Structures are given as structure tokens and as C-alpha cells.
From TrEMBL:
Tagged with keyword Flavoprotein: yes
Species this chain originates from: Rhodococcus oryzae
Keyword line: FAD, Flavoprotein, Monooxygenase, NADP, Oxidoreductase
Protein name, per record: NAD(P)/FAD-dependent oxidoreductase
PANTHER family noted in UniProt: L-ORNITHINE N(5)-MONOOXYGENASE-RELATED
Database matches in InterPro entries: FAD-binding_Monooxygenases, FAD/NAD-bd_sf, Flavin_mOase-like
Entry keyword annotation includes Ribosomal protein: no
Cofactor(s) needed by this chain: FAD
Family indicated by similarity: Belongs to the FAD-binding monooxygenase family.
Amino acid sequence: PQADTGADVDVVVVGAGFAGLYALHRLRGAGLAVRVFEAGDGVGGVWYWNRYPGARCDVESVDYSYSFSEELQQDWDWSEKYATQPEILRYVNHVADRFDLRRDITFGTRVTDTVLDEQTLRWQVSTDAGETISARFVIFAVGPLSNANIPAIEGLDEFQGGVYHTAHWPHEGVDFTGKRVGVIGTGSSGIQTIPFIAEQAEQLHVFQRSANYSVPAGNVPLDEETRRAQKAGYAERRRLSFLSGGGSPHQAHPSNALEVSEEERREAYEKRWQLGGVLFSKTFPDQVLDADANATAREFWEGKVRAVIDDPEVAELLIPKDHAIGTKRICTDANYYQTYNRANVNLVNLKATPIARIDETGVDTTGERYELDALVLATGFDAMTGSLEKVNIVGRDGRTLNQAWAEGPRTYLGLGTDGFPNLFNLTGPGSPSVLANMVLHSELHVNWVADLIEHLDTHGAVAIEATADAVTSWGRECTERAASTLMTTANSWYLGANIPGKPRVFMPFVGGFGAYGEIIAEVAAAGYKGFELIVASE
Ligand code: NA7
């Protein structure tokens, strides 16, 4: 056994993003001793790291904010419909100060090992700072999109110009003025940052492997009157959001796409298009269920996009051919497609001419050479499991979580795994997380775990553990639900398809945020059905 160098605590929380911060607040409020470890030097998680130009949330600021404190939501003023990364970071810092959270957070420190003591059922948690503490509960709040994917491209490490991954952007910023810049990757991050880099750089080459669907975000400043109305309507807005499919109050059209006239369909799409943002992919309830319904959305989208791109050949390359709309996370943008009309922007089609190698001064595709001064990697994340995987989590019988998840993540309700008592994972695989508003989702998970801990204490139990049967049947249910949609037909990060060798398992729960909330509430109400309570005398 490792020596304890710190005081024992009730709960260790790993990560000080939206989920970790609220976990600290809620559990400390319940009288528990909580210690948070955070790899970054500040709070905010994804919003601490992703500082690339143009970084902005694709969920409305009024929704992408904590609901747990009425005073907080009434006091805080969002300046725009969709908040920028700096504004969200200011908000998270405000929350940390307002609720005096920093005193229990150790920054600049990674948790390296989390080892179960099977006698006491406590966890020994070790950090890269050499500290080991013992905790009854461990809550991972490491974020589903936090482990950056650095592509294995030959020669990348030889490049002598600056290399910047969007999720590890230098805090002092990067000046691309007068530079020849390459961007690899055209997912949400690439699509947000490309228009900004294009304005600064002398020349921008965008290296696109797969085209994506993007919808204008339709961001607008919020005036005082709108803010007042939003604040007055918060109670109802939150109520609807917690019942909704994605964690915001917007409802899909009452009919399926194929049940309405063509005119009504176009009107509905046009309305969502004007509203802007990700909601376009949820205009009709059957849009990601039925290929023909999906095709109507796609056709509408294609018409809009082609109309703003000057060169039809470029437009052709920017229209996805390999997946249905909404089956990968839809992107939102400001003038993304128009950026390709600029003289200093060039689209490189990696499908036709893949990158052969990178060297000191540029990128060679199989077709051409591109001399570059800087390279931006907008290449995404080893999503949902990547950050957990880096921690050596050892449960019963010396079995690691990585061994347990070798064929893909296995969870009950996304929250627990058999063999790992009192260990909870927030907003990870098996939960709707990445398909929903992460802030409300974090609150839902934290509240559920906090209630569970209270339940254990009132029932004299030391621990709780998901049963193997519950884990197996939840996995089956998640897989079956996903297979009944079009979501499994795209090579998305939801499926692990973006990481070579990663097991292909559709990781999020697709049944909707509201439905998921009901399921986990029912499990709790039934005395945590599917979990085993372990009492002290055993
Ligand atoms: P994404 O959506 O995973 O996008 C990554 C992009 O990088 C995508 O276009 C990839 O092409 C491309 N990529 C990845 N590896 C390579 C290599 N080796 N060569 C060329 N291109 C590559 O990540 P984002 O950061 O944009 O967004 C992640 C989520 O964050 C987003 O969905 C929102 O929920 C917020 P591919 O499609 O794999 O062909």
C-alpha cells in the first residue's frame, strides 16, 4: 500500500470544468470533504484549453450556464447569444470565486493512478506531484472532449514553424500576420477558426479530409430587454430544457419531415436556418431516423451553401458525400463557406491527394508541396474515453478500467462500472452528454451522485457498485437505440472512428437528455436498481 501524504477525504473529483466545479460545490454543501485535482492552471476545462481564434459555444449562453443558483443566473449578464470562449472562461472564474471553490482545488496537477483498496473499499489517488490521498468516492469529471488527437503524420515533429493544436492554444495568442498557414481538420474547431485565420494570414491552405455540414450560428449581441426577458423566463426555460432531447427549450416540429407538404417543410427548415445554429439538425423528429427525411434537410442545406460559394468546384468539395446531415456533430459558423471566396484561401482535398509527409518547411501531399510558416491542427479529440484512459484506474482483482473497457466502454447509465465501486464518471460514454447541453447535463449527473451518496449514508452502506448484468444490459440498450437511428452510419468520433484502432462502439446514449434524466431518476427511486449496496459488515 502507498503511504498517505495528504489528509483523507470523502471525495476526490478529477477535473475543474463545469462538472467538476459543480460537484465540488454540491458535495461540499452536503458536508463532505472534497478535493479537486485539475491539470490546468485554472478552472474551466475545455474552455480553459481551447483558446483558438473564433472559439465559441454552439449552445446559447442563456442555456449553457448553471441553473443551480437562481442568484447566479439572475446576476450574470451574457453579452451575446452564443458566448465566446473568453466570456465563458470569465463566467466559470466568476463561479469559482463566487462560491469560494478554489481553496479545495489543486491546479497544475494530474491524477495518475486511482487504485482500489479492496479491504476498505477506499481509493488511493496519486498525482504527478507525488501526492497520494485516500478517498471514499472518486468522481471523474475529465470531460468527453479533452484528450487532443495529434495525428500520426510522418515528419510532423520536424516542422520548424509553429504547430498549434486548437485544444492547446497558447494563452498569449498567435499572430499569423504575413504568414503562410496550413490548417488540418475541418470539424467544429477548424470551421470556427478558419475564417479568423484567413483574415490575418497572408496565405491559408485548408487541408480537408472529410467535408462537414455547417450552419450559420446566427450569433447576435443580447440587448438589455432580451436579457431581462430571458431572466424572467428562466424557471420555465430550465424546466423545458431538462425534459428536452438536447438540454435546451427548443422543440422539434410536431410532425415528421415526410408527413408535411414540401412547402411546409421548406418553411420549417428556413425558420431554423434563420434561427441559426445546431438546431437545424433537429428541425423534424425523424431527421436522423429516416434516410429520406434526412435527405430533405440535406438538400435544403446544400442549396443554401452552394449559393454562397463562388467557385462551383470548391463548393463541390465542401459538400459532404460520405454521411447524412446530423450524423456527425453539426458545425456552426460565421462566414465559413464565404471564406473560400477569398483570394488568399486555398482548399486542399486530401481525399484526392493525401498528405504524404511533413518536413521542416512544409507539407507534401501526393499532389503538391505547400511551404508553410505555421501549422494549425484542428484534428479533434480521442473523445469520451481518451482522458480516462490516461489514468491508471485499478479496481477489483487488480483489473484496470482500460482492461474492462478493452472492447469499448462498459457502463451502467454512463455513471458506474462493475468492479469499480464508488467510482463515478460524469458526462462520459453511456450518457447523452455530447449530444446535449453539457452544463445542465453536468448538473444532472452531479445531483444524481450527490443524492446517491446521501442514500448510502442513510442506509449505512459503505459502497455501491453497478452489477455486471446491469452494465451488460445498459450497453445493449445503448447499442440498440443507436442502431435504430442513422447515427451509426457515419465515421464519427461518437463511434471512435476518428482514432485508428479504437473499438467501434457508439458511445453516447441517443435516447435524449430528458428521457435519460427520467431513467436515472427511476433507478434512484427504485433504491438504485442495478447497483449493489455494500454494507459495512460485509
Ligand atoms: P472533429 O470534429 O473530430 O474534427 C477533426 C477534423 O480533423 C476532421 O475534419 C478530421 O477529418 C480531421 N483530421 C483528423 N485527423 C486527421 C489526419 N490525420 N489528417 C487529416 N485530417 C485529419 O474535432 P473538432 O475539434 O473540430 O470538434 C470536436 C467537437 O468539439 C465537436 O464535435 C463539438 O462537439 C465540439 P475526418 O473527418 O476524420 O476525415
